[in-house]
Amino acid sequence: YPDVQTRLIDSDFASRLILETTNSCPALCRTDPNGQDLLVSDTSAMRDYLVKRGVDNSRQNLDGMFFKMAAPLGGSPAERVYLRYSGAIYNRWDYNADTGNYLRYVDNANDINRNNEVYVPLTDRITNQMIAAENVVTLCVPHQYYVKKEDAEVVEIIMDSALIGSYTGCDGKTYPGNTGAAYVARDGQLFTATWKRAAKDTVLTLLQADGTPFPLKPGHTWFEVVGASSEVLQQPDNSWRFVHHMVP
Are 95 and 80 in contact (CB under 8 A)? Predict the structure, then answer.
């Protein structure tokens, strides 16, 4: 969409953009396997591309998360976590007690009427192993339409207090624009937390009710993002369901 591309080009990170052109390959290439029109990238080529452009691509400061093997107190059973973003995009995470992580399943068919979810395992094509994470974090974040037309919708996810004032989160609480409700699934339990991003150039942090960092389990962490007015439903079978909603 031209208006989205213009905004990116006019942004303060424009020097880091790698846009698809006739000369962008191998950093960014258009391919067509099995009749699908796919855009793929070579991360090492992207690094070289930025170096040639004179962009400092050294490792950023990623301090901000806290990790601890022991789970905190106060969790609720969470053997499964469902995330439904739309009738065409939904997934779930199943807890594996033997490995202590969650396994990811994704939609295998559209479910527009929301009564026939069909899941398949999400696997790594190189290892043929299922995608897994020790922590599954769901963030409730304000969404708004950046483009909304008859034939196109582009949604903006807002974590910048300069763009939005205080709002009501999916837990019913009022938050300023750079914080919100978060839910962390780890060790077969779900915990409530608060996400915070002090400024747009700082790392996201997760906080407990007393303001101390939330202890993530060492390993992989997967972030799911839904609208601030989403439904958060605890189910009787020790599962949780997050259903995306956004204020129009």
Answer: yes
The position carrying tokens 């101390």 is 212
Mean pLDDT in residue range 105-118:
94
Cα separation, 241 vs 233, whole angstroms: 5
Tokens at residue 166, please? 């205080």
| Helices within the chain (DSSP H only) | 2-9, 43-52
In this structure, are strands 215-216 and 76-77 parallel, antiparallel, or unpaired?
unpaired
Asked if residues 214 and 193 have their Cβ atoms less than 8 Å apart, the reply is: yes
Output the pTM of the full model: 0.90
Beta strand 231-234 with 143-148: parallel, antiparallel or unpaired?
Answer: unpaired
pLDDT of residue 248: 63
pLDDT of 78 higher than 90: yes
Q: Which residues pair with 241 in a beta bridge?
A: 82, 233
Write the pLDDT tens digit of every residue in 20-46. 888 888 999 888 777 777 888 998 898
190 with 82: CB under 8 angstroms? no
How distant is the alpha carbon of residue 27 from its chain centre? Answer: 24
Of 247, 229, 226, 230, nearest to 144 by C-alpha is: 247
Distance CA 125, CA 60 (A): 28
